[in-house]
Specification:
The structure is a homodimer of 452-residue chains. Chain A has 452 residues and is of the alpha/beta class. Helix content of chain A is 31%, strand content 24%. Chain A folds into two domains: 339 residues, Rossmann fold, CATH 3.40.50; 102 residues, GMP Synthetase, Chain A, domain 3. The longest helix of chain A has 22 residues. Chains A and B meet through β1 and β4 of A and β1 and β4 of B.
Chain lengths: 452, 452
């Protein structure tokens, strides 16, 4: 039984000092557990000269060294298959992989207790996003060993709704069944969500008339930070769309945008603070950042036993979380805009940080542009230049292109403070590069800068 | 904890009279439950003039009308999405579909209790096939809403092994990871199992040296009834391969070949008799067949509550189950050869029943033939004729083809009593028709007979 009509668990509404008490107790236990059972953490902490006894208050966490994926790669290469991060070989029930752009997969094992926590946290987030017992919820994924689609399905079941897997189906089949079966929610990336709407249109199916979808769980790409894409999805699906951020490396669902917050211009995501301790670091120096700043999300799982995740650097860019009032009644801290992108999506041009998600947002806010775009980085004299390549909508006359380009130049200038060049290309040029609505990052951002 | 080193549950070893006692109590309860809660069954039984009170002993089951897929289609069309077969709208946790060759999917909802039973029964069967706690087990499937791959994964977890999903992966990736990660078992169709071995060879990977696979759970196609294919798989993978028969329509894992029985020439599969009551019917007349006969498998689930399955006609062809001695210690009845094919795979030629699986077996027993084949049915004068199209191995000289053909003609004659025509075609002609090792039935059996 949910705690209120908006909130699944009472713990989400505790006073801050009580949440922090819980966090401290769990942090102390977790660090001790990792130190005692994971040779990896024992070695790491011994080399840094710290022990579990050094954690007296929450901010002592910064005494501990951070962990990143290259360290996991190294121990898994040395000691297959899970590396000596693993604390036990018993009761491992789930197996996930994460893939970098190069090299072998990283492997993750979850204990039964770990997985129960993941299921519970997904239920909490999905309930917050508006999924209700009795709902029919489609998971638009092919089910590789990735935590996201699996955890989401378990969460749906946990809260009393019916998960509908759709692995191996093409988009037409998903769209048709979604309508025929009265599906009330689904999980997909924003790109795929828009692609499904396009396919429905091609099939002559009117979503506004036929869709019963109320809730879309958005995963894998920034959404709250890209209000224009969010509005497009809301418009096409007439449904609430919530960022649902889960990470395989650190025990699953870290934050989610609640139903109430989807009305905000740039929604903030609630952190599952009883399970995760969040820091935001300067990606270069590792320094802990304060209110109002943006940097790399660093996560500590407070209850992850198979392969603990303590100060794991995610390479995701977020704003520092804030305590703010949310009408849903949760007291947990929130991150405005949720995930903004990857640290590697941050383009540094003329000394200014620009995220592709910011450019995406500006492009998609202009109704006379198709939603696709490319970012080309070039060297112009001594400086770098951003060329933003966009597709006007088919009904726009060629003569109107220059005006459209000027509007976009102005929008970018006022949003991020730099002048970009805008290039208009015939409709289909960029969107034709995608597959199932997804354009690979390698085709999205093209770096033609001269290398020094 | 398993009951013995071969048997998961004590109930698998009970004396027959005790098993039948359990079956009768469960049958009476199940029929009453369906009558009380499923409008579909109430209507069916009222029309037939039977009530739950008419079931006094096990053989009274034949008083009840049978159910087939066309009846499910009809009620689901009339009353979407599950039809009035459904007994409850609460606590439905799993959703599966089954597809016919024409028309929409049939939909199946499982309650939490139903699904716990499925998980337990898969664990029992997989343990029987040789999977052990701590094993790493890959499920080679893309995870559409089909009971098989999901149930298998839950069963693996239930018995304490680690399931490795591989949805959306291509064969190369599956084979590579299977070897790199020390996978000890997997679930696949026989065709795909052989295809993976071919791909490993193409990749220059030596399965005999590198594979740690001990157990293969074979699904979706006849295997025990096709000893030549079974031997091919054993030879290539150096592993035990067991038929694992699960059916979405009737609550999952109905029978499995135990590890001990894989040594039999044509293994017999143990029935999960505490959960299922099995009858074998004449597919034309519906008459119940006796020992030694072959016919349509008709299943009654004794513990399936969401959408009961009582006397469900499967269209699968089996021999009548027998009580026989199995060295594993189970006392449950067994079906020699497990599933032989679909009733629709039965070719009636010159008044004799011929199964494509029988022909497959004969083709694959000849080492000088590639494993692929086609069956062409033709009219020759007043009679039907079977043309068996086969591919000699690449190293066989053309001059040897007629001899090879004669050998096969003789083998078929002595096995099924009819004379077929054998046509040899160049290597690659038939195998080139497949995708990922699977040749569609429409390309496997070609009916060129003149229609009357």
């Amino acid at each position: 039984m949910p705690f209120t009509k908006s909130v699944w668990s009472k713990v989400e509404t505790l006073p801050r000092e009580r949440i922090e008490e819980i966090q401290l107790i769990r942090l102390q236990r977790m660090v001790k557990f990792a130190y005692d059972h994971s040779p990896f953490y024992r070695r790491l902490y011994e080399e840094a000269g710290v022990t579990p006894m050094d954690i007296h208050e929450l901010k002592d966490i910064s005494k501990l060294p951070t962990v990143d994926k290259t360290m996991v790669d190294a121990v898994q290469r040395e000691n297959p298959i899970f590396g000596d991060l693993l604390t036990t070989s018993r009761d491992l029930v789930k197996f996930w992989t994460t893939t970098g752009t190069t090299g072998p997969s990283r492997l993750w094992a979850y204990t039964r207790e770990d997985w129960e926590n993941v299921s519970y946290l997904y239920a909490r987030g999905l309930y917050g996003a508006g999924v209700r017992p009795g709902d029919r919820f489609m998971i638009c994924a092919n089910y590789p060993p990735a935590l996201g689609p699996w955890g989401c399905g378990y969460g749906i079941e946990y809260l009393g709704a019916l998960p509908i897997p759709s692995g191996g189906w093409d988009t037409k089949k998903r769209v048709q069944n979604l309508l025929d079966w009265g599906v009330t929610g689904f999980r997909a990336t924003p790109s795929y969500t828009l692609h499904m709407a396009d396919v429905a249109e091609e099939m002559g199916l009117n979503l506004k008339e036929r869709s019963q979808v109320r809730v879309i769980a958005s995963v894998g790409e920034p959404l709250a930070a890209v209000p224009a894409t969010k509005r497009l999805i809301e418009e096409k699906w007439q449904a609430n769309v919530s960022d649902m951020v889960g990470m395989t490396e650190v025990g699953g669902p870290v934050m989610f945008v609640c139903q109430e917050a989807t009305r905000e211009e740039m929604p903030a995501a609630h952190l599952n603070e009883d399970y995760f301790l969040i820091e935001v670091l300067n990606p270069e120096t590792g320094e802990v950042l304060g209110p109002g700043q943006e940097g790399e999300l660093c996560i500590t799982s407070l209850l992850l036993y198979g392969m603990p995740g303590i100060r794991y650097r995610t390479k995701d860019v977020v704003r520092v979380p804030e305590v703010d009032f949310c009408p849903c009644g949760r007291t947990t801290m929130r991150i405005r805009g949720a995930i903004k992108g990857r640290t590697s999506d941050m383009l540094v041009v003329k000394g200014i940080n620009v995220y592709t998600s910011t450019l995406e947002n500006l492009v998609r806010a202009l109704p006379n542009l198709n939603r696709e775009f490319q970012v080309v980085l070039r060297t112009r004299g001594r400086f770098d230049e951003i060329v933003l390549r966009v597709e006007p909508m088919p009904h726009i006359a060629q003569e109107a292109y220059p005006n459209l380009a000027r509007t976009l130049v102005d929008k970018v200038k006022s949003a991020v403070g730099i002048t970009v060049a805008v290039e208009t290309v015939p409709p289909g040029t960029i969107s034709g590069l995608g597959e199932q609505g997804v354009i690979l990052k390698s085709k999205r951002v093209i770096d033609e800068r001269e290398k020094q």
